[in-house]
Write a structure and sequence with these properties.
Elements lengths: L4 E4 L9 H19 L3 H15 L8 H8 L3 H7 L10 H10 L4 E5 L3 H10 L8 E4 H4 L6 H10 L7 E4 L3 H10 L3 E5 L18 E2 L5 H19 L1
Helix pairs in contact: 1-2
The protein binds magnesium ion (MG).
Protein backbone atom coordinates (compact mmCIF):
# COMPACT_ATOMS: atom_id res chain seq x y z
CA UNK A 1 0.00 0.00 0.00
CA UNK A 2 1.37 3.38 -1.02
CA UNK A 3 2.14 5.70 1.87
CA UNK A 4 0.81 9.26 1.54
CA UNK A 5 3.22 12.17 1.20
CA UNK A 6 2.78 14.17 4.40
CA UNK A 7 2.48 17.88 3.74
CA UNK A 8 3.03 20.04 6.78
CA UNK A 9 2.28 23.65 7.45
CA UNK A 10 4.93 25.37 9.61
CA UNK A 11 3.57 28.13 11.89
CA UNK A 12 0.80 26.93 14.20
CA UNK A 13 1.34 23.32 13.10
CA UNK A 14 4.99 22.34 13.65
CA UNK A 15 5.96 25.60 15.34
CA UNK A 16 4.19 27.43 18.14
CA UNK A 17 2.10 30.28 16.75
CA UNK A 18 2.75 32.18 20.01
CA UNK A 19 5.84 33.69 18.35
CA UNK A 20 3.87 35.09 15.41
CA UNK A 21 1.14 36.32 17.78
CA UNK A 22 3.80 38.11 19.79
CA UNK A 23 5.23 39.81 16.70
CA UNK A 24 1.99 40.84 15.02
CA UNK A 25 -0.21 41.56 18.05
CA UNK A 26 2.31 42.99 20.54
CA UNK A 27 5.74 43.92 19.19
CA UNK A 28 4.58 45.44 15.89
CA UNK A 29 1.91 47.68 17.48
CA UNK A 30 4.53 48.84 20.02
CA UNK A 31 7.13 49.62 17.36
CA UNK A 32 4.47 51.16 15.09
CA UNK A 33 3.32 53.48 17.90
CA UNK A 34 6.92 54.62 18.57
CA UNK A 35 7.59 55.19 14.86
CA UNK A 36 4.40 57.13 14.17
CA UNK A 37 4.14 58.89 17.53
CA UNK A 38 0.66 57.60 18.29
CA UNK A 39 -0.83 55.66 21.18
CA UNK A 40 -0.63 51.89 21.39
CA UNK A 41 -4.41 51.70 21.08
CA UNK A 42 -4.35 53.74 17.86
CA UNK A 43 -1.61 51.52 16.43
CA UNK A 44 -3.54 48.38 17.28
CA UNK A 45 -6.61 49.75 15.58
CA UNK A 46 -4.75 50.81 12.41
CA UNK A 47 -2.94 47.48 12.17
CA UNK A 48 -6.10 45.51 12.86
CA UNK A 49 -7.79 47.23 9.90
CA UNK A 50 -4.81 46.38 7.67
CA UNK A 51 -4.82 42.77 8.85
CA UNK A 52 -8.52 42.42 8.01
CA UNK A 53 -7.96 43.80 4.50
CA UNK A 54 -5.13 41.45 3.65
CA UNK A 55 -5.87 38.27 5.57
CA UNK A 56 -5.15 35.11 3.54
CA UNK A 57 -3.45 36.98 0.66
CA UNK A 58 0.23 36.76 -0.23
CA UNK A 59 0.72 40.36 1.00
CA UNK A 60 -0.42 39.34 4.45
CA UNK A 61 2.46 36.89 4.68
CA UNK A 62 5.10 39.22 3.24
CA UNK A 63 7.43 41.00 5.64
CA UNK A 64 8.59 43.20 2.74
CA UNK A 65 5.02 44.33 2.14
CA UNK A 66 4.42 45.15 5.81
CA UNK A 67 7.75 46.93 6.17
CA UNK A 68 6.73 49.32 3.39
CA UNK A 69 3.13 49.63 4.46
CA UNK A 70 3.67 50.39 8.16
CA UNK A 71 7.26 51.69 8.03
CA UNK A 72 8.57 49.26 10.58
CA UNK A 73 11.21 46.68 9.62
CA UNK A 74 9.10 43.62 10.35
CA UNK A 75 11.82 41.11 9.49
CA UNK A 76 14.25 42.80 11.87
CA UNK A 77 11.54 42.81 14.52
CA UNK A 78 11.28 39.03 14.13
CA UNK A 79 15.05 38.60 14.35
CA UNK A 80 15.12 40.78 17.48
CA UNK A 81 12.70 38.33 19.10
CA UNK A 82 13.94 35.09 17.55
CA UNK A 83 14.70 33.42 20.89
CA UNK A 84 10.94 33.06 21.29
CA UNK A 85 10.60 30.76 18.25
CA UNK A 86 9.68 27.30 19.51
CA UNK A 87 8.40 23.96 18.21
CA UNK A 88 4.93 22.69 19.16
CA UNK A 89 4.60 19.71 21.52
CA UNK A 90 5.76 16.46 19.95
CA UNK A 91 7.25 18.13 16.84
CA UNK A 92 10.63 16.42 16.74
CA UNK A 93 9.32 13.19 18.23
CA UNK A 94 6.84 12.98 15.34
CA UNK A 95 9.39 13.91 12.67
CA UNK A 96 11.79 11.23 13.99
CA UNK A 97 9.00 8.62 13.97
CA UNK A 98 8.03 9.52 10.42
CA UNK A 99 11.65 9.29 9.30
CA UNK A 100 11.99 5.85 10.87
CA UNK A 101 8.79 4.69 9.18
CA UNK A 102 9.99 5.97 5.80
CA UNK A 103 7.39 8.69 5.22
CA UNK A 104 8.12 11.43 2.72
CA UNK A 105 7.50 14.85 4.28
CA UNK A 106 7.04 18.23 2.61
CA UNK A 107 6.98 21.61 4.33
CA UNK A 108 4.51 24.01 2.71
CA UNK A 109 4.35 27.42 4.33
CA UNK A 110 2.70 30.74 3.66
CA UNK A 111 5.62 32.40 5.45
CA UNK A 112 7.69 34.34 2.92
CA UNK A 113 11.16 33.06 2.04
CA UNK A 114 12.87 35.36 4.56
CA UNK A 115 10.44 34.23 7.26
CA UNK A 116 11.00 30.58 6.40
CA UNK A 117 14.76 31.07 6.60
CA UNK A 118 14.46 32.78 9.99
CA UNK A 119 12.45 29.87 11.39
CA UNK A 120 14.85 27.27 9.96
CA UNK A 121 17.86 29.11 11.41
CA UNK A 122 16.27 28.72 14.83
CA UNK A 123 14.53 25.34 14.56
CA UNK A 124 16.33 22.82 12.38
CA UNK A 125 13.46 21.23 10.47
CA UNK A 126 15.45 20.85 7.23
CA UNK A 127 16.77 17.30 7.76
CA UNK A 128 13.23 15.93 7.84
CA UNK A 129 11.85 17.41 4.61
CA UNK A 130 12.51 16.52 1.01
CA UNK A 131 10.63 19.59 -0.23
CA UNK A 132 10.38 22.98 1.51
CA UNK A 133 8.27 25.62 -0.21
CA UNK A 134 7.25 29.17 0.63
CA UNK A 135 4.05 30.28 -1.09
CA UNK A 136 6.00 33.41 -2.10
CA UNK A 137 7.92 31.14 -4.49
CA UNK A 138 4.66 29.77 -5.94
CA UNK A 139 2.95 33.17 -6.32
CA UNK A 140 -0.26 32.17 -4.54
CA UNK A 141 -0.99 31.43 -0.89
CA UNK A 142 -2.07 27.91 0.06
CA UNK A 143 -5.69 29.04 0.38
CA UNK A 144 -5.87 29.20 -3.43
CA UNK A 145 -6.24 26.16 -5.66
CA UNK A 146 -3.61 27.71 -7.96
CA UNK A 147 -1.01 27.13 -5.23
CA UNK A 148 -1.64 23.40 -5.43
CA UNK A 149 -1.67 23.30 -9.23
CA UNK A 150 1.68 25.09 -9.46
CA UNK A 151 3.13 22.99 -6.64
CA UNK A 152 2.16 19.84 -8.53
CA UNK A 153 3.85 21.13 -11.70
CA UNK A 154 7.05 21.74 -9.73
CA UNK A 155 6.90 18.58 -7.61
CA UNK A 156 4.64 15.93 -9.02
CA UNK A 157 2.33 14.16 -6.56
CA UNK A 158 -0.96 12.29 -6.54
CA UNK A 159 -3.50 14.12 -4.32
CA UNK A 160 -5.00 10.74 -3.51
CA UNK A 161 -1.74 9.85 -1.76
CA UNK A 162 -1.19 13.13 0.05
CA UNK A 163 -2.15 14.29 3.51
CA UNK A 164 -2.14 17.96 4.55
CA UNK A 165 -1.72 18.97 8.19
CA UNK A 166 -2.45 22.68 8.76
CA UNK A 167 -3.94 24.80 11.55
CA UNK A 168 -5.78 27.15 9.13
CA UNK A 169 -9.19 26.01 7.92
CA UNK A 170 -9.09 28.09 4.72
CA UNK A 171 -5.83 26.38 3.73
CA UNK A 172 -7.38 22.96 4.23
CA UNK A 173 -10.35 24.09 2.13
CA UNK A 174 -7.96 25.12 -0.67
CA UNK A 175 -6.22 21.73 -0.50
CA UNK A 176 -9.60 19.99 -0.50
CA UNK A 177 -10.74 21.92 -3.55
CA UNK A 178 -7.63 20.67 -5.34
CA UNK A 179 -8.46 17.07 -4.46
CA UNK A 180 -6.57 16.24 -1.28
CA UNK A 181 -8.97 14.35 0.95
CA UNK A 182 -6.79 13.50 3.94
CA UNK A 183 -6.81 16.71 5.93
CA UNK A 184 -5.87 17.23 9.57
CA UNK A 185 -5.98 20.36 11.70
CA UNK A 186 -4.50 21.44 15.04
CA UNK A 187 -6.47 21.99 18.24
CA UNK A 188 -4.12 24.56 19.80
CA UNK A 189 -1.89 26.33 17.26
CA UNK A 190 -0.60 28.85 19.85
CA UNK A 191 0.45 27.95 23.40
CA UNK A 192 -0.52 31.51 24.33
CA UNK A 193 -4.18 31.02 23.46
CA UNK A 194 -6.85 28.61 24.61
CA UNK A 195 -7.28 25.35 22.74
CA UNK A 196 -10.10 25.31 20.18
CA UNK A 197 -12.93 22.86 20.66
CA UNK A 198 -12.47 19.84 18.41
CA UNK A 199 -16.23 19.79 17.67
CA UNK A 200 -16.06 23.39 16.37
CA UNK A 201 -13.44 22.40 13.81
CA UNK A 202 -14.43 21.09 10.41
CA UNK A 203 -11.52 18.66 10.04
CA UNK A 204 -10.12 15.90 12.26
CA UNK A 205 -7.93 17.63 14.84
CA UNK A 206 -4.92 16.67 16.92
CA UNK A 207 -3.38 18.35 19.94
CA UNK A 208 0.05 16.76 20.45
CA UNK A 209 1.77 16.09 17.14
CA UNK A 210 2.58 12.52 18.19
CA UNK A 211 -1.15 11.74 17.75
CA UNK A 212 -0.61 11.95 14.00
CA UNK A 213 1.13 8.66 13.21
CA UNK A 214 -1.68 6.41 14.56
CA UNK A 215 -4.15 8.49 12.50
CA UNK A 216 -2.14 8.04 9.30
CA UNK A 217 -1.78 4.30 9.83
CA UNK A 218 -5.55 3.96 10.46
CA UNK A 219 -6.34 5.86 7.28
CA UNK A 220 -3.97 3.62 5.28
CA UNK A 221 -5.71 0.52 6.73
CA UNK A 222 -9.16 1.88 5.85
CA UNK A 223 -8.01 2.63 2.31
CA UNK A 224 -6.51 -0.86 1.99
CA UNK A 225 -9.79 -2.48 3.09
CA UNK A 226 -11.72 -0.24 0.72
CA UNK A 227 -9.46 -1.28 -2.18
CA UNK A 228 -9.89 -4.97 -1.34
CA UNK A 229 -13.68 -4.58 -1.29
CA UNK A 230 -13.81 -2.68 -4.57
CA UNK A 231 -11.23 -4.86 -6.36
MG1 LIG B 1 -0.28 27.79 10.05
Amino acid sequence: MQKPILMFDMDGTLLDLAFDDLIWNTRLPERHAETHQCTLEESKEILHTFYQQHNHTLCWYSSKYWTEKVEVDVLKLQYDNQEKIAPRPGCFELLEQLKQHGYRCWLLTNADQAGLQLKLENIDLSPYFEVMISSEEIGYSKEFVEFWEILQQKHDFDPQYAMMIDDTEKVLQGAEKFGITQLITIVQPSSGRAARQAHDLNYPAIQNLTELLPLIETSITIQKEFNVKTA
